[in-house]
Specification:
This protein has one helix spanning about 1-10; strands spanning about 15-20, 25-30, 60, 65-70, 70-75, 80-85, 95, 100-105, 110, 125, 130-140, 145-150, 165. Strand 1 (about 15-20) and strand 2 (about 25-30) form a beta hairpin. The strands form four sheets. Strands 3, 4, 5, 6 and 11 form a five-stranded antiparallel β-sheet that branches. A four-stranded antiparallel β-sheet has the order 9-8-12-13, with no helix packed on it. It contains one helix and 13 strands, in the order αβββββββββββββ. The protein is mainly beta and about 180 residues long. The model is unreliable at about 1-10 and about 10-30 (pLDDT under 50).
Length: about 180
């Protein structure tokens, strides 16, 4: 169910089922709803790759290559992981914290916050071939578990592609039909 929930979150479609029954006297419709997976807020970019990456995967997303580390949860509930961005652009570009989000199963998303000894991730201008590394750190105020990290640098320009990483260590992408 967890793997289906992650895929449902990525596909922007809630899981649901409909059962119908009828007889000669009357027709009734019953709707059965599976545990609801929240719709991503904000919605995921339309041009995101439908097969997400896993922590440790290096993803080439146009003029940026991004890799995230394995997440950890501290005693105070802070969820964090390292992120490394390598610029492949010829010109400098500026990234901002709102370009990086952690989504929870309920569909809510959170940007990195500053904490003791940790600055807010994402406020940086990258020069050509520069590597920017920092810690993405967030406190999630609900019981909903973190399921995905989104890096959406597409507001910078058309040469940047959004990408997502799932936190489920058992996630395996579906086999390709090709």
């Amino acid at each position: 169910m967890r793997r289906q929930s992650i895929i449902a979150l990525l596909a922007l479609t809630p899981l649901f089922g409909v059962a119908c029954s009828s007889d000669d006297a009357a027709m009734s419709t019953t709707t059965t709803v599976a545990p609801e997976v929240g719709n991503p807020d904000p919605p995921l970019p339309i041009d995101i790759n439908t097969i997400p990456y896993k922590p440790g995967d290096l993803a080439a997303l146009g003029n940026a290559s991004i890799q995230i580390g394995t997440p950890t949860t501290a005693e105070d509930g802070t969820f964090s992981f390292d992120v490394s961005i390598t610029s492949g652009a010829l010109e400098p570009y500026t990234i901002g914290p709102q370009m990086f989000r952690v989504y929870t199963l309920d569909g809510k998303s959170y940007i990195s916050v500053a904490g003791p000894g940790i600055e807010q991730f994402g406020e940086h201008t990258l020069q050509s071939e520069e590597v920017y590394t920092g810690t993405f750190s967030v406190k999630i105020p609900t019981d909903s578990e973190p399921v995905m990290f989104l890096a959406d640098l597409s507001p910078i320009g058309e040469r940047f592609i959004p990408g997502a990483w799932v936190f489920d260590p058992n996630f395996t992408p579906p086999a390709s039909d090709g």
